[in-house]
Each structure stands twice: as structure tokens, then as C-alpha cells.
Amino acid sequence: MNNYKKEILDKICYTELVYGRINKKLSIELSKDKIEEMITAIISETDESDFQKTGKNIYITNNEKNVRLTINSYTNRIITADRLNKKQRTANNGDS
Q: What CATH fold (topology level) applies to the domain 4-93?
């Protein structure tokens, strides 16, 4: 099993556009520093079993925070963050 969590935390990077995308998708208004703190906290608090690699992306699902992060597995660049809807939460909980 790959240790995606450690590698992502060590190498995560952001583009200028992703800050605005995260604020918009999560309906928040945070500074770049606060977004980076939030993303780091979500990754740190999420169990490795909730990291799923599909194709070139790694999806990190945190049901407690009601968010899913999408990270490029080659560059460790965050692509987006999405709120989980009820259907996604139920599907993810069914895996346990």
C-alpha cells in the first residue's frame, strides 16, 4: 500500500487559480494561507483508507469535514475541493 498521505503532505503545491476554485466550490472566503492550513488539516485528519487513487488523481474523502479533495498524483498539486452530498457520504460509509 502506498503512503499517499505522507508524500502529499510533504510535496503538496497550489496554483493561483485553485485558491479561488476552492473558495467558490466550498462557499467560503479564506485567504491563501488559511486555505493551505485547512487543506493540510483535512489531509492530516483523514485516514489513509479514505485515499483512493483513480487514474492520475488521488481522491481524499473526509466525511467529518464533509469534503473531498482531488490531488494530481504525479505533481501532488491540489486540483479542487468538493462538498460531499448525502449520496456520496452514504456510498463512502457503505465501504466500512
A: Nuclear Transport Factor 2; Chain: A, (3.10.450)
